[in-house]
User: Fold this.
Amino acid sequence: MTAPFPVTDQDFQAKVLNSDILTITDFWATWCAPCHLIAPLLEEIADEYDGQLQVAKLDVDHNPNTAMAFGVMSIPTLIVFKDGQPVDRIVGYMPKDRLLSRITPHLA
Assistant:
């Protein structure tokens, strides 16, 4: 099982942008209720698609530089990175089936 893992301003390049696997980065904060609602769904997706994608979690309160660099204005924001480039942005909570409908096209 692959679980979501934390990233910081310091290791974002290495863990997300330089990754050879599709990476969903969850921009979140501890005080954000919708962030806590979407977290279990991301855990399930990380587990179900182990080897095909990974889920990174970036706490925007402790890592504002990366959030600002990618124009994150609301949380949760999920940015899907493929080959070091953002290919999709999902803002706010949505059910798992809708999340997967946005994520799975990027697996091909």
